[in-house]
Amino acid sequence: MIFITTFTKEIYQICGKNLLESFIQSGNHLEHQMYVFFENEDDLYTEYYPEWLIEWSDKPFFTFINLMNYEYENKKIIPYIDETLKPLINFTNEYSSPRSVKWFRPVAAMNYFYELMGNTNFSSIDADCLFIHPVPNSFFNEMMEKSNIAFLGREKFTIMRHGGYAADGSYVHTNTVPSTGADKHTETGYIGFNFNLSGTGDFIKRNFNYWLTGDVLNLEWKTDCHTFDATRKELDLNYNNLCDPMGEISPIGSRVIEDSILGNWLIHHKGTIGPILYSKNKL
User: Fold this and answer.
1) Where are the beta strands (DSSP E) in 21-147?
2) How does pLDDT run across 82-108, given as a tens digit for each residue?
3) What is the pLDDT at residue 279?
4) What is d(CA 99, CA 20) in angstroms, rounded to the nearest whole number?
5) Against a cut of 0.85, is the pTM above it?
6) Residue 238 and residue 232: Cα distance in Å, rounded?
7) Under a CB-based contact definition with an 8 Å cutoff, are residues 37 and 12 in contact?
8) pLDDT single digits (tens) 209-233
9) Can you tell me whether residue 177 is helix, strand or coil?
10) How far apart are CA 101 and CA 124, in angstroms?
11) Mapped to the 3 state alphabet, what secondary structure does 137-170 carry?
């Protein structure tokens, strides 16, 4: 399996470095590869390894690509979307604000990878994930054999169990509330794409085009999670919702990766990036 992820220098320092280390420490580098689409704030359009990634340059299982240099229809697509959409999104809440353009990065990385590698199966993961055990390729073959896409859809949760970090660092249950529309979007911390079935590439392109055409502006919430869900409703493909076995009550803190079949080898440290970047006006 090829995994892809995205991060800036700051996200790398917060959690991305831990992700890369865990990929090796868990032994997943022996069977899998990872493509990292990075954004280097110190030199946005560099063609070289930034100094903060040099230590990984001799690792053949990692490929680093500057996402800011991605050109689509003769435009550097990240700054184009930033400049085009940011002025058009008013602040409503954390899911809809001028900062929403930041959520275009993982969508662009998926489309970029698809352009580079064609019909190659891959999994997209968030930078605040950690590998904890090796996972065989047979796992992905079984999970996605009959599905274009494996994902973590929360639309069936009617009860949300919220969570937070205790003083000792443990993650604990804080309260239980009925779910609202804002709770029901897909968790895009993991998405698996199977190109052995037709239509998977169409999904990636339509998700990308939600941003390129401005269709994202017609959605109530404007994130990669919500364009993913809108695309899923449009395209009649085969989907494997890994949250279905969980029923109607969410895991604590909606930590759906850990409570799904992915949890045997992957964990998701939700809440490690957002609060830090929000406090610095960077998300």
Assistant:
1) 33-39, 62-66, 71-72, 75-76, 122-125, 129-131
2) 999 999 999 988 889 999 999 999 999
3) 54
4) 26
5) yes
6) 10
7) no
8) 999 999 999 999 999 999 999 999 9
9) strand
10) 18
11) HHHHHHHHCCCCEEEECCCCCCEEEEEEECCCCC
